[in-house]
Batch of 2 targets.
Target 1
Amino acid sequence: MTVKYTREHEWIRIEGDTATVGITFYAQEQLGDVVFVELPEADTSADQGAEVAVVESVKAASDIYAPVTGTIIESNEELSDRPELVNEDPENDGWFFKMQLSDPSELDDLLDEADYQAFIQEEL
Amino acid sequence: MLWARELADVLTALEESTWVGLGARNSLRLETGLCLYGNDLTTETTPIEADLLWSIQKRRRTEGGFLGADIILRQINEGASRKRVGIAPTDGRTPLRDHTVLKNSSGDVVGEITSGGFGPTHEGPVAMGYVSHDMSTLGTELIAEVRGKALPCAVCDPIFVQQRYVRSL
């Protein structure tokens, strides 16, 4: 199991050819209290970088991008009733959606944890 | 500048106070249905369209004699073509943001959200905007276009939370 990160503050947990995607602890902290999440429908395909979900906090609405190319296979329906899970447990129960990867080589361009931590230090 | 800073230091030293940002100011005023100039009121808006008749003295309403009196007095008597209203999503949870287009069931544009967001005290989405006069009755069903999707919503009272502050001199 590998976890990678994007510069858009998403994490992506890879198990075989399936990836679970959510936003990082840092991202939820920047957003503030999450009040609404719009999730993608299953069986939709998405190119890397495509807008597939929306997260709304008390402050603003932000797009969530597909970190890799693939097909959405499942969304975290729990977030419809409990969007606050994104704040409470962003990197576990607060996951957004799962994807079937089309091109695992795209993962090579993503950040590992150390790179991501360095990246957010630069942003601060 | 020095005075402003000293005043801020005095105020924030109080136990009951803390710094807040524009977001907090915006959600608080939206929940109580207060207009933000530039968003909900512009040089193109009349007080009648904005549902702010209370802001015009009774004497002025009959005598006129102020800038815009021609149009405003006519609107007092005959009504305005559009009106400011509250808008609530039927699902009770999708926030409607500024500039969201509002349509009727036939798909014609009938208005626009001018301010919208989430109300922490209301514990739900809060929004206000302008709709054509015939769509401004409380409960009128509308369609908001949110990210290319049609979201059912309805006209509601723009006061989502009653003001409880006390005016004193």
Target 2
Amino acid sequence: MSRWAIRCDELTKRFGDRTAVDRVSLAIPRGTIFGFLGPNGSGKSTTIRMLCGVLTPTSGSGEVLGYDLLTEAEEIKQHIGYMSQKFSLYEELTAEENLSFYARIYGLSLERARRRKEELIALAGLAGREKQRAGSLSGGWKQRLALACALLHEPELLILDEPTAGVDPVSRRIFWDLIREFARRGVTVLVSTHYMDEAETCDQIGFIFFGKLLVTGTPGELKARTGLPSLDDVFIQLVNAQGHFSGQGGGQG
Amino acid sequence: MRRRIRFKWGRYRAVVFKELLQIRRDPASLGIAAVMPVLMLLLFGYAVNTDVDHLPAAVWDQDKSFQSRELVRRLTNSGYFDQRYQVEGYAALQRLMDAGEIKVAVVIPPDYSKRLDTRRPADVQILVDGADPNAARTAVANAQLIVNHLAFERQQAWFAREGLNPVAQPLQAQVRVLYNPDMKSLFFNIPALIGLIMQNVISILTAFAIVRERERGTMEQLIVTPVRPGELILGKLTPYVGIGMFSFLLVLVTGIAWFGVPVRGSLLLLVVLSLLFLVTSLAIGILVSTVARTQLQAMQISFGFILPSVVLSGFIFPRETMPLFLQGLSGAIPLTYFLHILRGIFLKGVGAAELWKDILSLAGFALLFCAVAIMRFRKKLE
């Protein structure tokens, strides 16, 4: 088994003549939390979507959990859990019905589905909300339900696209405690965010800007390399070094 | 090495179950499914009746004789005219006609009976509101027929009184109307309505069901699961096949039992071919969903498709009288062939031997649409 959960080489995505992701190369070791940072429209979501097999790369290659990104996309999907930045469960269905649906989609046996649902409901603090329609849950609950659905099949890799955007600080804290708990159990986590306090606690971070991956390393390394006191300052310096922060080339979250 | 992940019934069933739950909790789509067919059926069964009879009429009888009353009685007894007003003068007639109170006015001159008694030709004036050409044509034709008939009778009576043998009319058309002898437009409309309702309900619901997943972002979540496109599409469509068959049976039973439309041909053939059309409609819905990004767009595209199919399929206007260009367009609409099949089986009692051309065309459309729909529906977001 390869020691890399994700490895990609010169991954590129163009929409028409706009390059959303420009030759991004990444190597994420198993069992780590990798924080993917960058302003809105920098290409975070597009990169993540390519890694999940939602979008086909224009060029480049990659491997996720040892499966080829281009030819074994369906295999990858069996082994990853994904949560998009927009709430994407069925609002008309109750929390439990959503969980049951995904359990069946992932082909869990009845017994395993029951056990996993119980575990995750307890872990995500959803007890008592099982019969509530997903649409009527508040932000933090929704996020945790979506996380629970993504974790039903015990994926080796969890990919989270801005999971805490627009969620209150308390829910954000609970959510990150959950993520760390799963990382502790050996799940690799790729998470995009633009909260610097979240980035600080990642094992590794990568900063993407205008589709280009500018830098990767541990938070400590990045600060030491630049001699700056906070990640905020590091990234502001990186952006300034690029010489522009105009709106061009944006889009695609 | 590419390992194919096979179609799994478990995942298919999960999608079906989820879709059923959603349909049950979404009154809007259930409403379209249940209310639209009934509404259209009642609308076309009662309101859109192209049979013209009981036209409101006013009579200005200046003669007020036994003879003039006989004429009015003949007109009203035909069932085509209802005498609503008895007036004096053109001004009154004009007022009623302007107000839309009457469609027909009959003016009998003061010397009507006197002229008839002295065997001089008499004139009766019939005024018709021509704004609605269909009603006007019926009124003119029937008024003429009734008056001519009366005139002929009168002539025969004169001859008889002179001691002459009644003369036979030299020429007479022996008309027999086949298939729908009473020429009830209901019998023509209801079978066609089955096709129209199925097409609309099925294609709109299908398009909505798929576009909704994309619009709400649930499609993105599904794409990262191992679900196969085939499982997803078939699973999503299955409930709508059920709803479509329900709509079909609803209209069929109501048409037969309530409106008394006869089924002269094979009911089994009708059901089998309706299933074929159902598949075509589903494919249309999927096609719409591959183009539309939002439910609103899906609605607009569907209407862009439904309107021409109502006008061009022969549902209301006969195909044969259309300009050649429109006839060609009409040939590109699957509903055209299905309507032909429906009316053939319902009214003419014909079978596959007579309808094979339509059946082949319909099957061709079903295959083509399904192929394009499956090709276009990929498990990617772009």
